[in-house]
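Worked example 4.2. Below are the chains of a multi-component assembly; read each line carefully before continuing.
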Amino acid sequence: MIAFTDAERKEYRNIWVVAEILSGEIQSVTHELTGAAKILADLRKSEVWVVVMGFGIKGKLESLFAYGADVAIVVDHPGLSGFVDETEAKIMKRLIVKYKPEVVICGATSRGRALIPRVSVMTHCGLTADCTGLSIDPENGDLLQTRPAFGGNILATIRCSNHRPQMATVRPRVMKSPEPDPGRTGRIIKEEMLTSDTEKIKQIIDIFHSTETAYNIADAQIIISGGRGMKGPKGFNLLKQFAERVGGAAVGASRAAVDSGWIPYAHQVGQTGQTVQTKVYIACGISGQIQHLVGMQSCDLIIAIDKNPDTPMMQIADIAVVGDLFEIIPEIVSEIPKL
Amino acid sequence: MKIVVCIKQVPATNDAKIDPETKRIVREGMKAILNPFDTYAVEEGVQLRDKFGGEVIALSMGPPKAEASLREAISVGVDRAILLSDRAFGGSDTWATSYALSKAIKKIGDIDLVICGKQAIDGDTAQVGPGIAAHLDWLQATYVMAVEEISSSSIRVKRMHEDGYDICEMSLPAVITVVKDINIPRVPSLKGRLASNKCEIPVWKPDDIGADTSKIGLNGSPTRVVKIQPPPPRHTSTKKIEGSSIECAQSLLRELRLRSIV
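Applying the procedure described above to all two chains together yields the following structure tokens:
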């Protein structure tokens, strides 16, 4: 909504988080964002509200309060068991008009990135995608949103002074999850579904849970990634063994490996794959074309293993291991005890 | 079936530099390409047209030189192209861009399906596709990895999610955004190249699409970029591990253990 004057802006209060629900479970990104929202709300002396849309989520709300929420707005309905963009957007608009939040933050997940742009247009609000930093002006409530652009080559700071609420998405694992306080409590506001929410919407025919088609590498702590240097699907079996021995590791790949058919697309890291910000990224036989680097260069620790010490990947790595990965990796695997 | 494919010309990102004085992106001399994700949208539009007949139209908003990307779309089989280009569109954020594109789609008329790439590689927002759907009040499906079925009145698609995928059905008209899995874009044929050289690409201005000028360009954009800076440098030095394979393995293991990774 347009809010040109201070008086108009003052009508909007509180920092909202849109909860990410998968299979009826509240996802950790929601807790991360609740923690980030709490910092903003404290500066504004306002509250953190979490919007929960789903089915069968009652009784799972305590965790939201433990992570810093003051209020949970809950819409619990069978029509929300699958992800119906149109329905959720209509509910969000209704809630925004009714309660007037100052800021709305949503996970930059496949669902969040579909839902929030729709809501931002319906409510005439500004929206900034994939923020890596959020701060707020304690006086006027303007949200300063920092995000990478041009494939990570620049950082842009974005402000949205004349519209409320201000909307932002944040990728999972960008914000640190706060320590939960199990003793903390909050209020629950129940909101109903309206008949109009289910008019002119898509029908979900079927839902499949699969780790192969949508391999969630971005959620891993550690990614062990392979490129052209893995020479074939067998090379990736080696990386899978390596990943199994390292707790919480996922297997990633460069575009070259995916295009060669050695591993499915869902594993691809980089500009046309996924952007990852894991604690550790181990690049095996990846030369490091810029399109790959932009997808992983903000990982905390980058380790590269390659025969060629002069590749771009070996240059940007924190640790560069020069040698034959077909000898080095089996040696490492044999030294790490099985979990 | 009448399809619009929305495409964007983007800078090849590895050329992106910031002017140290103005803190703005240096666009001069920057190589421009068709957004890689949009090549899948174009291909899907062309394939659906080939199967079901009708027309596929490429639509873009940008400076006059963005015409080159529209010609690229024609070279791989798009029937015709339209460019939204005017100073008044300049500085549009995703809200204003999706508004302008939605007005152009209305102006073209009788559209059954709009196809966009998942996101553009310069902004990486993925907001324009759903934004168009919202401005038009049409149904939307994002991260589409397959079009399973399509008829004159509905479309059934497979959507990619973090935890798997779903199949959903929407009445038309609708907007879909597609991921790389959906197809393999073709290379231009000789006939296609000739067509792309010959074709006239009309340029539409705000008046042509009946756009409310308070909703386009910088003035119509809720968001403002207030600062641009280079990202903090990654690190100062690389620790190199060399030697026999066993020595390398042992040294790396030590590093991993020091950091409690294994």
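Take a moment to check your reading of the output against the notes. Chain B touches chain A through 84 residues (CB under 8 Å). The CA atoms of residues 245 and 251 of chain B lie 10 Å apart.
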